Amino acid sequence: MQAALCSRAVRRPVKLIWSREEDIKQDWFRPAFLLTARAALGADGLPLAVAQRLVAPTILAPVSPTPVEPGTVDGLAVEGLIAHPYRIPHTQVDYHMLPVGIPTMVLRTTGHGPNNFAFESLIDELATAAHVDPYAYRRRLLADNPHALAVVDRAAARADWGRPRARHHLGMAFADCFGSYLCQVVELSLVADAIKLHRIVSVCDPGRVLDRNNAAAMIEGGVLWGLSTALYSAITFANGHTRERNFDRYRVATLPDTPKLVTEFLENRTDIGGLGEVGPVCVAAALGNALFAATGRRYRRLPFARDGVFTVYGRLFS
Known about the structure:
By secondary structure, the protein is α/β, with parallel strands linked by helices. It has helices spanning 2-10, 20-26, 112-129, 134-141, 146-158, 212-231, 283-295; strands at residues 34-41, 47-56, 90-97, 169-177, 180-191, 194-205, 237-238, 241-242, 260-265. The chain has 7 helices and 9 strands. A 4-stranded mixed beta sheet has the order 4-5-6-9. A 3-stranded mixed beta sheet has the order 1-2-3, covered by helices on one side.
């Protein structure tokens, strides 16, 4: 709209670029999600039923060719909850689209990101309740899906899951997103009152990889994006304006925060899936599950910095 008005005023084509401050304070924002979940376990420790309730503003409306009104289902907001490859006999998803006065849309990933954080954190909690290793628990839930199982098994192998290690802790998360299977494992340790990230393993099966260098770049760039949103990045408001205007207050993961990235692809799925939005999806859940393994505490809200979680290097700049 601004470019059109400027072009009309000067009667010639105009290229308009916002400053970073303008972009952060008045562009589209990623909607906040609130999700609660309940589960019933059978005698074998596996879930018989999972019920989830999601409240979130729209993601789809700004890009939808047809109106998306309150009272309807935003298909992008419920992604990752409606369909998943885990063997759970009974599932229920309740969704409420919350009207807000803030323009909301996508941020590198749709509902898969926040929903995966909630759902994969729940899966780890169920594994703990059943006294089963989280990796072994996911294997049991994926027993009927050999392609998904291959992704989880390869990620566990690349992360050396189960190998005794001193003061290093692992967390795992899995997703069926954008036509691809993804499993990520975060390895971290505690240093005083902060964490040190050592390694993030990503194994993805998009069916077919057309360009491995480009594919790896998309996954690894997404991992860093996911670290930023999991650890630090948040927009807050006061008196109708954003408090964050630039990277001095809107924190992102930087090079010193970055662990070793291990990325591998399998090509077992029949169809070709996406990669551009896949990379960030499991990072928050895998990181949260690794934090539980290290501290015994469940972190249930993002970003983790709100609950005092910082990287060793990130503390120097906080």
